[in-house]
Design a protein that fits this description.
Pfam families: GST_C, GST_N
Largest sheet: 4 strands, mixed
Shape: globular
Strand order of the largest sheet: 2-1-3-4
Strand content: 5-15%
CATH topology of the largest domain: Glutathione S-transferase Yfyf (Class Pi), Chain A, domain 2
Family: Belongs to the GST superfamily.
Order of helices and strands: EHEEEHHHHHH
EC number: 2.5.1.18
Mean pLDDT: 94
CATH architecture of the largest domain: Up-down Bundle
Keywords: Transferase
Protein name: glutathione transferase
Low-confidence stretches: none
Helix content: 55-70%
Oligomer: single chain
Number of helices: 7
Number of strands: 4
Radius of gyration: 18 Å
Number of domains: 2
Length: 223
Amino acid sequence: MLTVHHLNNSRSQRVLWMLEELGVEYELKRYQRDPRTMLAPPELRAVHPLGKSPVVTDGDLTLAESGAVIEYLVDRYGERRFSPPPGVSPERVRYNYWMHYAEGSAMPPLLLKLVARRLESAKMPFFARPIARRIAQTMQSSFIDPQLRLHLGYIDAELAKSTWFVGDTFSAADVQMSFPLETGSQRAGAKSLPHIRAFLERIHARPAYQRALERGGRYDFAS
C-alpha cells in the first residue's frame, strides 16, 4: 500500500492532490507541526533521515522531495496521463522546466520572505529589536521583494499564454507549481495578478483538489 506521510500546512498537500487526480488508493499518516517552532515533529525522522514532508513509502521504496514524489507517482500510476510523452518535444521541455522551477527558483525568495518576517517579530532583548527589524526590512526592500515581483510577474505573463503551465492540458507541472503560487498569495500578493488568480481559481475548483483538502486536513494556503 502506498503511504503518504503528510505534514499539515506543507508541500505534501499537493502530493495528496496528485494522488486524487490519479485515482490511486493510499494510506495517510498525519503529522502536526510544533506550535512553537512550526517545524515538523521528530517522528518523521523515523521515516526519512531529514525528517521533512512530503515522504511517501511504496513497498520497499521511501521517497522524499515533492517534485521527485510527483514525478514518481505520474510515472508509476499515471498511465500516460498528466505528463507529456518522454522525449525532447516542446511540451516535455516545458513540463520539465516548470517541475524544477517551482522549488529551484520560485520558492527561495518566498522562504526568505518568511525568514525576514519572523526576524521582525522574533523575541529578543529589547536593545536588539530595532537592529533586527532594520535588517529584516532592508533584506525585504533591497532584495526579497524585488525578486518576488520579478518572479510573479514572469509567471503571470507565462500563464497569459495558455490555460495551464504546459499549454491547454492540465499536467503534474500545475500541481507542482500550486504551492509557490498559494504561498505567494499569502506572502507576496500573487493573487493581485490576474492570470495567477485565475489559475488558482481553476485548481481550487477541481474535484480532486477538494477531495485532497478533505483528506489532508487544515491547509491555510488554499484560502
